[in-house]
């Protein structure tokens, strides 16, 4: 009886197991039939756009500005060093070349986490599944999205080679600090190309996809180092590197060399002019669509224009005296270097020199020759007497700005001008802009006074009126009347208060006679003048209001 009871108990369990084994694949196949029609075509994957920065070039083909918060530098598979591929395989998917897109061990772990609601971020995704997710899917963690990822991974494997899949992966993967792809990461973290990286540096980058913030060498260097060394150990275990290569790589410090992204914008006022125009016409996607814009800017003249504006403003500002320190007893990290001026904190004041702490931790000494100019500012029209000792200029804990000489062997005290300026250089033969400067320094003030600083035009409007006079048949020797005139309640006057009577048109122009300009406006007509302004690119609301007063 006991034997029969045991058999009777085993038989239902066996049936349940059979039902489960049959139901699981059927259910899985049913989900595939449901999801398959929504899967994208592989042709779109091969053509999937990568993020490429907007680049601005001069007329002489020099790169002067680059934009795009997300940096992506596409590379072909054949350009990738084998050690870099091995680092990613060791870190993410060592059986990549053996499986068909799905790791059943990893899948089981991921499904278990999904069912139990675990917060563990293991995921279990193969490289192919990560390609599916990065190119097509949202980051949500649901069962349907995970199944879609699995089915799409299989479709990818059936349509693309392993090399194509790896190429898509290393070009799209997010690696922290706005870097998308390995070439961008090499540039951002080490300022190198992928072929210049050491094995340790490749392993450091390969460790980032798992958790770009947690293992980031900038914000978490200890965790990043631990992750890097684990990957190097896996590379040794899998036979990708030798014991000697492993020992050398593990001993290598992190040694980041992150370039200043601002250096990509050599002439930022000109570059920003182009960026804003492209966004205006094509939307924000223009920033990451790989546009290369060639301008009429002349690189040499642009550099001269920027230096001329900066030197002129500084010379004017110096003549008005030293206004004192930029701040006192404030954290040095709050201040930014620009216009070849560097924030520094005064640490010691001697009779004819002072010492200052720089942001990089070094200490420099400013000699008397570098500060003797600093006569104190009194008001807009006067300065104080010449200083005789350093303590009259600075005191300990002052935050000031310093500038090195070309050889960087001596430093001078400088101050950021209060006054601003702008410059536009236009080729008179074709009207092209060859240089544009919007202020003292872009990183001090991004407001472009050459484009955005609308002001009353004053006498600069007069050449337009004279051009229309010539169009109507006048010549430089046509006699015009420089005498008082009243229109309604408005009586324009000449700046010197004098009137010259009948004079040639050319003389009226170079003497800038206001009454002649008003009479010319009456002759050529307001509507023709407004049309000329619009022909030169002015909008209706940018035309001087004064022309509405003249009748």
UniProtKB/TrEMBL annotation:
Query: What pathway is this protein a component of?
Result: Glycan biosynthesis; Cell wall biogenesis; peptidoglycan biosynthesis
Localisation: Cell inner membrane
Provide GO CC annotations from the record: outer membrane-bounded periplasmic space; plasma membrane
Reported EC number(s) for this entry are 2.4.99.28, 3.4.16.4
Q: Which GO terms describe its molecular function?
A: penicillin binding; peptidoglycan glycosyltransferase activity; serine-type D-Ala-D-Ala carboxypeptidase activity
Which InterPro entries does the entry mention?
A: Beta-lactam/transpept-like, Glyco_trans_51, Glycosyltr_51/Transpeptidase, Lysozyme-like_dom_sf, PBP_transglycosylase, PCB_OB, PCN-bd_Tpept
Cite the Penicillin-binding protein transpeptidase domain residue spans from the record: 424-540
Catalysed reaction equations from the record: Preferential cleavage: (Ac)2-L-Lys-D-Ala-|-D-Ala. Also transpeptidation of peptidyl-alanyl moieties that are N-acyl substituents of D-alanine; [GlcNAc-(1->4)-Mur2Ac(oyl-L-Ala-gamma-D-Glu-L-Lys-D-Ala-D-Ala)](n)-di-trans,octa-cis-undecaprenyl diphosphate + beta-D-GlcNAc-(1->4)-Mur2Ac(oyl-L-Ala-gamma-D-Glu-L-Lys-D-Ala-D-Ala)-di-trans,octa-cis-undecaprenyl diphosphate = [GlcNAc-(1->4)-Mur2Ac(oyl-L-Ala-gamma-D-Glu-L-Lys-D-Ala-D-Ala)](n+1)-di-trans,octa-cis-undecaprenyl diphosphate + di-trans,octa-cis-undecaprenyl diphosphate + H(+)
Q: Would you kindly state one Gene Ontology biological process term found in this protein's UniProt entry?
A: response to antibiotic
State the superkingdom: Bacteria
Q: Give the transmembrane ranges.
A: 12-35
Question: Where's the Penicillin-binding protein OB-like domain?
Answer: 321-419
* Record keywords: Antibiotic resistance, Carboxypeptidase, Cell inner membrane, Cell membrane, Cell shape, Cell wall biogenesis/degradation, Glycosyltransferase, Hydrolase, Membrane, Multifunctional enzyme, Peptidoglycan synthesis, Protease, Signal-anchor, Transferase, Transmembrane, Transmembrane helix
**Topology in the lipid bilayer:** Single-pass type II membrane protein
The Glycosyl transferase family domain covers: 62-235
Q: Member of which family? A: In the N-terminal section; belongs to the glycosyltransferase 51 family.
Protein role = Cell wall formation. Synthesis of cross-linked peptidoglycan from the lipid intermediates. The enzyme has a penicillin-insensitive transglycosylase N-terminal domain (formation of linear glycan strands) and a penicillin-sensitive transpeptidase C-terminal domain (cross-linking of the peptide subunits).
Q: What is this protein called?
A: Penicillin-binding protein 1A
Q: Which organism is it from?
A: Acinetobacter seifertii
For this protein's source organism, the top of the classification is: Bacteria, Pseudomonadati, Pseudomonadota, Gammaproteobacteria, Moraxellales
């Amino acid at each position: 009886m006991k034997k029969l009871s045991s058999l009777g108990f085993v038989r239902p369990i066996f049936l349940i197991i059979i039902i489960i084994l049959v139901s699981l694949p059927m259910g899985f196949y049913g989900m595939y039939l449901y999801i398959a029609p929504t899967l994208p075509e592989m042709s779109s994957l091969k053509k999937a756009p990568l993020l490429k920065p907007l680049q601005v070039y001069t007329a002489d083909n020099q790169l002067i500005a680059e934009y795009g918060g997300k940096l992506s530098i596409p590379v072909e598979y054949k350009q990738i060093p084998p050690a870099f591929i091995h680092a990613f395989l060791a870190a993410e998917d060592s059986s990549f070349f053996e499986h068909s897109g799905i790791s059943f061990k990893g899948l089981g772990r991921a499904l278990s986490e999904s069912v139990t609601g675990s917060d563990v971020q293991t995921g279990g995704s193969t490289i192919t599944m990560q390609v599916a997710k990065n190119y097509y899917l949202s980051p949500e963690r649901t069962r349907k999205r995970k199944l879609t990822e699995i089915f799409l991974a299989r479709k990818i494997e059936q349509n693309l080679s392993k090399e194509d899949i790896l190429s898509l992966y290393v070009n799209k993967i997010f690696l922290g600090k706005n870097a998308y792809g390995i070439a961008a990461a090499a540039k951002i973290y080490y300022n190198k190309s992928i072929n210049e990286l050491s094995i340790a540096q490749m392993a450091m980058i390969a460790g980032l996809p798992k958790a770009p913030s947690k293992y980031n060498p900038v914000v978490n260097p200890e965790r990043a180092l631990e992750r890097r060394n684990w990957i190097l150990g896996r590379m040794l275990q899998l036979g990708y590197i030798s014991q000697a290569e492993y020992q050398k790589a593990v001993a290598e410090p992190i040694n980041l060399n992150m370039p200043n992204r601002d250096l990509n914008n050599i002439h930022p006022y000109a570059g920003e002019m182009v960026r804003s125009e492209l966004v205006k016409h094509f939307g924000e996607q223009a920033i990451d669509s790989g546009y290369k814009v060639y301008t009429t800017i002349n690189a040499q003249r642009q550099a001269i224009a920027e230096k001329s504006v900066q030197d002129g403003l500084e010379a004017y500002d110096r003549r008005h005296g030293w206004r004192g320190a930029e701040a006192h007893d404030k954290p040095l990290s709050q201040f930014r270097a620009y216009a070849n001026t560097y924030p520094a904190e005064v640490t010691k004041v001697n009779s004819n020199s002072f010492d200052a702490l720089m942001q990089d931790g070094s200490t420099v000494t400013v000699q008397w020759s570098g500060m003797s100019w600093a006569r104190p500012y009194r008001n807009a029209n006067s300065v104080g007497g010449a200083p005789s000792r350093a303590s009259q200029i600075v005191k300990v804990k002052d935050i000031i700005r310093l500038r090195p000489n070309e050889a960087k062997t001596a430093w001078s005290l400088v101050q950021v001008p209060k006054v601003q300026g702008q410059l536009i250089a236009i080729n008179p033969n074709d009207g092209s802009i060859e240089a544009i400067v919007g202020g003292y320094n872009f990183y001090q003030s991004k407001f472009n006074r050459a484009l955005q600083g609308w002001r009353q035009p004053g006498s600069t409007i007069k050449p337009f009126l004279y051009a229309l006079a010539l169009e109507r048949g006048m010549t430089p020797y046509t006699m015009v009347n420089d005498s008082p005139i009243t229109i309604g309640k408005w009586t324009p006057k000449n700046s010197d208060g004098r009137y010259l009577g009948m004079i040639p048109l050319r003389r009226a122009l170079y003497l800038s006679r206001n009454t002649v300009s008003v009479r010319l406006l009456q002759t050529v007509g307001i509507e023709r003048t407004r049309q000329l302004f619009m022909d030169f690119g002015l909008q209706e609301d940018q035309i001087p209001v004064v022309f509405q007063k003249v009748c």
